[in-house]
């Protein structure tokens, strides 16, 4: 039987299949009470449609779930990509995006955004002394505090390491400075790290955007201002000035030139005699590095040594100086120009104490040059000694074991307490020139104070060297205190190699102009 | 009413008939999950903790929902299920019942009751 024959069920079946094929999966057909083959087909199609509808619903539900999961994963990824995992603050990518938005808003007439870049001072010390977990705790706490000083519309970001940024939207210089000051203030309270407290001071660079700024240039200029703040001292806010860019470029140029200069004849060492105050005899020299720049002339070590530390060239520099000095010592010794007990004093950067192979390097040099270890004095700044960790102490003890003398340099400028003087593995103390010049540069010096410092050093069982002796009066007074050594322009300025060799060869007492020391 | 659908056989001399459970789904009804559940419950009661062969008569039912098919084909009290129908429609319905999830026991469609009972008797030896 066909539809043409007049069985209406076949026509119904065709219509039903057409409806299903159009996507109406809920369509069903009613079989007749005959329950014959045609009804069986109708029933079968109904059941297949039911199955299809179910599978389709399940499929749709699954697509819906997967789409939701995908959307959530996308959001999570975006959040991760836009935030700093440690602190939950925005990261650099998010910050740049928000800076761009704020700059666009400025183009449309909104007040300009301001960008603050903030770098924690001495954060590396926290990591070194207390470990990275403690360092992370400090960063999280700093993040919380910074969150507390901004408005809801501002953004606090961590750019990496100990560097943070605050985007102040719709700002004026006054508003931005207000945020910067609140940020500094929020960091003034100490943070507890285990049993210790650390003071998370920071340097802040600030730049208020102009209409010409891009996100990159705003970041760069805020960074430049922060860099200037950092160079100037701790807990300082600096607002960007164009001259800072020039200084920074100069510094970058100098950094590259310094790398090239190390090991060439641009660098040389000068030697400042250290004198036995009792008789004016030279009992040693301090080796001082000099940089004779081909176009800019003599560059102060106060400028290029911190730079060498910053660019990671200090190790190479220190080792070059050490090798040059010991080689010179060996030459003097071979030519019998130096008396018994003569010591060559070489400065070492605090960073160098962290290099585990430094001791081996010095041991190798001493052996190769046949220099007795006790003829070498390593001068280390007071702050390096006090803030040093286990590695530094290990290096110091290894040097002592080798027989090398250790001297605290610049004593009186750091944080040494009397107890530190007794605890540190040092043999000698070099009293900073400022002690002789106290209370203020240019004013009359205070002999009683100097005497007390000397007594303190003696009481700790250490030898004393005074630097910065500029007058006969100072020299005479120090001589009256007891057996000690000194150096300074009164006796001799640092001399280049030929000049110091001539002085040593002459065997004369210093100062040269003085005929008698009585 | 559902009590009438459960009709344990009263032919004691036939060992197979004596042990099988005969379920007769009501002709003309749309068999839903609830109806199927009621049958399954009563089959469980009749089986009294022993797995027994089931003769499931679907002759003349209007439809058998997907959920009802799930309930019937998942029977825990059956050692084997013979589905009995009389028309082409019953056969189609029955085969959807068989074609679902793998059943826990042998299950097969018959158009003839004698063949169904015989098959079930063969299955009793499988226990």
What would you say this structure looks like, in words?
The complex is a heterodimer of chains A (518) and B (127). Chain A has 518 residues and is of the alpha/beta class. Chain A has three domains: 8-70; 92-240, Alpha-Beta Plaits (2-Layer Sandwich); 251-505, Alpha-Beta Barrel (TIM Barrel). Chain A has 19 helices and 16 strands. Chain A has helices spanning 8-21, 37-82, 92-107, 123-130, 132-147, 173-186, 215-232, 242-261, 301-310, 314-334, 350-353, 358-369, 382-387, 390-402, 418-423, 433-437, 447-459, 472-481, 497-506, and strands at 114-120, 155-160, 163-168, 191-193, 196-198, 202-208, 237-239, 267-276, 282-293, 297-299, 343-347, 376-381, 405-411, 428-431, 463-466, 485-486. In chain A, the strands form three sheets. Chain A has an eight-stranded mixed beta barrel, surrounded by four helices. In chain A, a hairpin with a 2-residue loop joins strand 4 and strand 5. The model of chain A has no long low-confidence stretch (mean pLDDT 88). Chain B is of the alpha/beta class. Chain B has one domain: Transcription Regulator spoIIAA (2-Layer Sandwich). Helices cover 43% and strands 20% of the residues of chain B. Chain B contains six helices and six strands. Chain B has helices spanning 2-5, 15-19, 33-47, 66-73, 88-98, 113-124; strands spanning 21-24, 30-31, 52-57, 63-64, 78-84, 107-110. In chain B, helix 3 (33-47) runs parallel beside helix 4 (66-73). The N and C termini of chain B lie far apart (32 Å). The model of chain B is unreliable at 1-15 (pLDDT under 50). The interface between A and B is medium-sized, with 14 and 11 residues.
């Amino acid at each position: 039987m066909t539809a043409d024959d007049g069985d209406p069920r076949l026509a119904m079946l065709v219509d039903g299949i057409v409806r299903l094929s159009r996507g109406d999966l809920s369509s069903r057909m009613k079989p007749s009470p005959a329950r014959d083959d045609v009804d069986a087909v109708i029933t079968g199609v109904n059941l297949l449609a039911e199955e299809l509808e179910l599978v389709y619903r399940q499929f749709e539900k699954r697509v819906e779930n997967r789409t939701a999961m995908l959307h959530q994963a996308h959001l999570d990824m975006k959040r991760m990509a836009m935030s700093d995992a440690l602190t939950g603050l925005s990261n650099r990518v998010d910050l740049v995006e928000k800076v761009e938005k704020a700059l666009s808003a400025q183009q449309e007439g909104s007040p300009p955004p301001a960008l603050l870049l903030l770098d924690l001072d001495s954060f590396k010390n926290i990591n070194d002394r207390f470990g990275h977990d403690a360092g992370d705790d400090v960063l999280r706490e700093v993040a919380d505090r910074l969150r507390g000083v901004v408005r809801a519309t501002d953004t606090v970001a961590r750019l990496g390491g100990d560097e943070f940024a605050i985007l102040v939207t719709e700002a004026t210089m006054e508003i931005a400075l207000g945020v910067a000051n609140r940020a500094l203030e929020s960091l003034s309270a100490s943070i507890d790290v285990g049993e210790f407290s650390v003071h998370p001071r920071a340097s802040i660079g600030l730049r208020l955007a102009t209409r010409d700024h891009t996100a990159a240039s705003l970041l760069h200029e805020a960074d430049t201002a922060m860099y200037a703040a950092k160079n100037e001292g701790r807990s300082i806010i600096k607002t960007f000035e164009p001259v800072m860019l020039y200084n920074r470029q100069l510094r970058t140029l100098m950094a590259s030139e310094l790398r090239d200069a190390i090991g060439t004849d641009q660098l040389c060492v000068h030697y400042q005699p250290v004198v036995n105050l009792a008789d004016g005899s030279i009992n040693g020299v301090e080796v001082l590095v000099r940089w004779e720049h081909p176009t800019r002339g003599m560059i102060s070590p106060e400028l290029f040594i911190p730079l060498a530390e910053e660019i990671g060239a200090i190790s190479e520099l220190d080792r070059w100086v050490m090798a040059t000095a010991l080689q010179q010592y060996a030459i003097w010794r071979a030519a019998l120009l130096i008396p018994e007990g003569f010591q060559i004093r070489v400065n070492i950067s605090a960073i160098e104490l962290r290099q585990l192979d430094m001791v081996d390097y010095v041991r190798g040099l001493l052996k190769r040059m046949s220099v007795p270890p006790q003829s070498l004095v390593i001068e280390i700044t007071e702050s390096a000694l006090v803030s040093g960790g286990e590695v530094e102490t290990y290096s110091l003890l290894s040097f002592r074991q080798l027989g090398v003398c250790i001297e605290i340099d610049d004593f009186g400028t750091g944080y040494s307490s009397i107890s530190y003087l007794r605890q540190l593995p040092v043999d000698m103390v070099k009293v900073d020139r400022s002690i002789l010049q106290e209370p203020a540069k240019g004013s009359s010096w205070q002999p009683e104070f100097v005497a007390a410092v000397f007594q303190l050093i003696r009481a700790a069982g250490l030898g004393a060297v005074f630097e910065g002796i500029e007058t006969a009066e100072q020299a005479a007074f120090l001589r009256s205190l007891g057996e000690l050594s000194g150096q300074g322009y009164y006796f001799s300025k640092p001399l280049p190699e030929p000049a110091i060799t001539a002085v040593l060869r002459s065997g004369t007492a210093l100062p040269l102009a003085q005929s008698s020391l009585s | 009413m559902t009590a009438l659908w459960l009709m344990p056989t009263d032919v004691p001399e036939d060992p197979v008939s004596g042990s099988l459970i005969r379920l007769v789904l009501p002709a003309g009804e749309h068999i839903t999950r609830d109806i199927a559940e009621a049958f399954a419950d009563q089959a469980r009661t009749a089986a009294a903790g022993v797995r027994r062969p089931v003769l499931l008569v679907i002759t003349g039912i209007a439809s058998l929902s997907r959920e009802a098919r799930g309930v019937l084909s998942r029977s825990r009290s059956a050692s084997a299920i013979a589905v009995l129908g009389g028309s082409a429609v019953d056969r189609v319905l029955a085969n959807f019942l068989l074609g679902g999830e793998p059943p826990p026991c042998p299950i097969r469609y018959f158009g003839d009751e004698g063949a169904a009972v015989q098959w079930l008797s063969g299955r009793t030896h499988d226990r």
